[in-house]
Structure to design on (832 residues):
């Protein structure tokens, strides 16, 4: 073997490889992997393993020690981005030069000769070896290694130099100390230094053992102190001086006043008995005490008296919210049922008090049997009467959450709200079991404890935003809460006893019904919230938003006046929503602009008009579609619905020379594309009736819906697509003041669709005055405000032929005659 050698450098962080010792190494740096790959290509697989001076990522020659170990690569296991290998030290080496080549470091290495004593049989040298061997064995045993393992390892080190290196590799010392041992070439000096480190390690282990013994002794003293304190407490209790007994008695007195079910009473009494026998310092004492305090604070028999005055309730609902007629009607219906039930119960109670005693033969009790009383009318209804579960579904900002507060105010009940948006843990609903550290009841029980009433109005906000995770599905936990047939015995995991939720009026809110699991949706009665019309928004802004934002921005009604035209300009030019949340923000922005001017001394009173809105809020950000200026061939006006309201869209169709292909663009969904295919098939099957030349179907047809960046889908654009297609094929213009909606079939039937109110209002905003709807949607027109219906010409239809008759103007064109291209025939015209 030649010397010196040129070897790949393997930089080591916090590691020193000693000769004769095998160590596992994990490498992941690119230059290190390159060095390993270079070494494995050689026959001997040698590398120069040298430690870094600093634990840094970057590798450079000046950051490496000079003396290292010539090592041989053994077994290699490759992973994703790293390798694990066994590295066995062969001999010490001195780097004469380290250079970078091919993405890794290479070193010119010369072997470092070890210096044995002049007389290896010298007594001092022999004694040094024996002492190190004995102290190393002692250290291994104190460190917890089996004696046979320590003996076997030391027996393999039959040379002094190997013994020193082997023991040094097992020592827990700093990197600098390891490197110093590697650089010590005199064997006797190396033995002496290793022995010093071994003695220090033994001293550290002895000190740890002493500390552990002292701690255990101190813990024993504390245990004795606890026993003595317990005895002292027993003596104090016997003498009447104990505070713990008073605390337990006070808690027992609170619980005895509660009207608990029998099952709950047994569980609570059992826990009270355990608490009285338990040491106050124990952790379980605090757990049981917190549990009993929670039980004592729950409203087991506390109720709010319902205000069942329908006229007063109607006044409160009208005062707090404008419009929302259907929702208010549903609440008043609920109150009416409660009022009738209460009157029935009062009559039944009066009849029972007026009835003869049970011992009288003429009383109704005699007919019921020996010793039995006749059932009281109304009791069965009372037992089966459950609180309704209402689901307020609609777009954001339409008043779902705020009307729940008005319902509580109208009924005279307490109000509790739980936001379920993003809740992903079943324990949020059912609570944690008491065995867990930091356990607490679920949100249902916590809210009932806070309001202190058994029959509050309970708002479950954003129920469609519930999540699912490995902690469980909170939507499934709500199934019991929102089931009137089960929630009279709802059991929270923390309580472990049933609690009656049947008197709670649950109201849930959601934006998208599709996100609510079907079993949960089936347990609730849906009350649909639709978007507000512009007139309704104007009235809401005048009554509520402007006064509220005026006060919020420290202004008075004399300092700020926003006219109806300014509000209308804000609605149309700066908001696009079904509710009024963004409108309130824009009104607040107007108020802040005015407040700044008044604070700066630029006037003391402002009356804002439409022109002032543009000056204060900047250029309009909303640009709704407007009706086309004139009839056009191949362009039909449709109506669509979004969660923020309705609007119109244009469907464009154009024909061109081709092979009879149908192309649909505009980021259309699968349902909308299928509507285009159905319209194409309808036109081909009715070409004669529609005045379409058969040759037109040999041309390509392109159907496009503008606003290509916005995804569109749904079947309601079917009649619009068919009208635009027939218009393009027959060369007949489509009326520009007419908008349509409806799904079509291959036979031309027009099927009903949803969102009629929003779609029609969107068309009215765009300047449309003639509407075509499916006949089955005719009843939905009742949802439109009366002043809107009076301005519209509405045509209910059942067949596409009726739509085309209303929408298309003019007569079909003559058959298309196109010239023959040169070389295509004998010069005569080809009719397509």
């Amino acid at each position: 073997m030649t010397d010196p050698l040129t070897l790949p450098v393997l930089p080591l962080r916090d590691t020193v490889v000693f000769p004769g010792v095998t160590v596992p190494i994990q490498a992941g740096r690119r230059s290190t992997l390159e060095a390993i790959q270079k070494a494995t290509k050689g026959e001997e697989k040698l590398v120069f393993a040298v430690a870094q001076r600093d634990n840094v990522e970057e590798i450079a020659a000046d950051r490496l020690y000079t003396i290292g170990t010539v090592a041989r690569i053994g077994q290699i296991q490759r992973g994703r981005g790293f390798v694990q290998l066994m590295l066995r030290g062969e001999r010490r080496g001195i780097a004469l030069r380290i250079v970078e080549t091919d993405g890794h470091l290479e070193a010119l290495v010369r072997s470092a000769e070890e210096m044995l004593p002049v007389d290896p049989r010298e007594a001092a040298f022999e004694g040094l070896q024996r002492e190190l061997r004995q102290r190393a064995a002692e250290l291994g045993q104190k460190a917890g290694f089996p004696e046979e393992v320590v003996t076997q390892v030391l027996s393999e080190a039959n040379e002094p130099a190997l013994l020193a290196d082997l023991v040094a590799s097992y020592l827990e010392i700093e990197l600098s100390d390891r490197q110093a041992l590697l650089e010590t070439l005199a064997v006797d000096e190396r033995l002496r230094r290793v022995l010093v480190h071994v003695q220090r390690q033994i001293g550290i282990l002895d000190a740890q053992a002493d500390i552990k013994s002292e701690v255990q002794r101190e813990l024993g003293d504390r245990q004795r102190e606890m026993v003595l304190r317990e005895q002292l407490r027993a003596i104090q209790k016997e003498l009447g001086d104990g505070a713990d007994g008073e605390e337990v008695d006070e808690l027992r007195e609170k619980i005895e006043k509660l009207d608990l079910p029998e099952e709950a009473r047994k569980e609570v009494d059992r826990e009270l008995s355990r608490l009285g026998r338990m040491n106050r310092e124990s952790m379980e004492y605090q757990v049981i005490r917190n549990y009993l305090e929670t039980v004592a604070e729950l409203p087991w028999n506390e109720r709010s008296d319902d205000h069942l005055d329908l006229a007063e309730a109607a006044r409160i609902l009208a005062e707090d919210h404008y419009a929302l007629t259907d929702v208010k009607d549903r609440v008043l219906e609920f109150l009416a049922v409660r009022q009738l039930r209460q009157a029935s119960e009062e009559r039944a109670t009066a009849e029972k008090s007026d009835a003869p005693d049970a011992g009288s033969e003429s009383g109704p009790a005699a007919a019921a049997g020996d010793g039995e009383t006749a059932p009281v009318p109304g009791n069965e209804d009372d037992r089966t009467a459950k609180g309704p579960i209402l689901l307020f579904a609609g777009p954001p900002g339409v008043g779902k959450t705020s009307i729940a507060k008005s319902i509580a105010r109208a009924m005279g009940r307490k109000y509790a709200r739980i936001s379920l948006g993003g809740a992903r843990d079943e324990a949020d609903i059912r609570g944690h079991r008491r065995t867990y550290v930091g356990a607490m009841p679920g949100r249902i029980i916590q809210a009932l404890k806070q309001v202190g009433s058994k029959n509050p109005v309970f708002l479950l906000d954003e129920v469609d935003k519930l999540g699912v995770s490995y902690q469980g599905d909170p939507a499934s936990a709500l199934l019991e809460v929102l089931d009137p047939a089960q929630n009279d015995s709802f059991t929270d995991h923390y309580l472990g006893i049933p609690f009656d939720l049947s008197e709670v009026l649950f109201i849930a809110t959601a934006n998208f019904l599709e996100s609510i699991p079907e079993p949960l949706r089936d347990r609730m009665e849906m009350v649909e919230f639709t978007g507000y019309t512009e007139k309704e928004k104007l009235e809401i802004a005048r009554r509520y938003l402007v006064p509220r934002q005026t006060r919020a921005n420290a202004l008075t009604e004399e300092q700020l006046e926003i006219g109806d035209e300014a509000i209308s300009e804000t609605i149309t030019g700066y908001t696009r929503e079904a509710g009024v949340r963004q409108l309130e923000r824009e009104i607040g922005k107007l108020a802040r602009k005015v407040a700044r001017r008044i604070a700066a001394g630029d006037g003391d009173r402002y009356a804002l008009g439409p022109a002032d809105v543009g000056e204060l809020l900047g250029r309009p950000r909303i640009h709704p579609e407007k009706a086309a200026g004139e009839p056009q061939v191949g362009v039909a006006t449709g109506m669509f619905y979004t969660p923020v309201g309705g609007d119109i869209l244009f469907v464009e169709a154009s024909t061109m020379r081709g092979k009879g292909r149908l192309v649909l663009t505009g980021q259309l969904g699968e349902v909308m594309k299928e509507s285009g295919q159905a319209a194409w098939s309808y036109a081909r099957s009715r070409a004669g009736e529609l005045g379409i030349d058969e040759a037109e179907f040999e041309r390509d047809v392109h159907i496009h819906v503008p606003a290509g960046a916005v995804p569109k889908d749904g079947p309601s654009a079917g009649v619009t697509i068919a009208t635009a297609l027939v218009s393009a094929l027959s060369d007949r213009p489509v009326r520009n003041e007419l908008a349509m909606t409806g799904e079509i079939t291959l036979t031309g039937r027009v099927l009903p669709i949803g969102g009629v109110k929003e779609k029609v209002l969107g068309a009215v905003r765009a300047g449309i005055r003639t509407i075509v709807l499916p006949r089955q949607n005719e009843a939905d027109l009742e949802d439109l405000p009366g002043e809107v219906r009076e301005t519209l010409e509405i045509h209910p239809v059942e067949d596409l032929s009726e739509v085309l008759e209303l929408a298309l103007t003019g007569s079909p064109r003559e058959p298309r005659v196109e010239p023959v291209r040169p070389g295509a025939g004998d010069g005569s015209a080809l009719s397509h």
Remarks:
- Residues 358-385, 817-832 have pLDDT under 50 and may be disordered.
- The longest helix spans residues 187-239.
- The longest strand covers residues 83-101.
- The chain is about 45% helix and 20% strand.
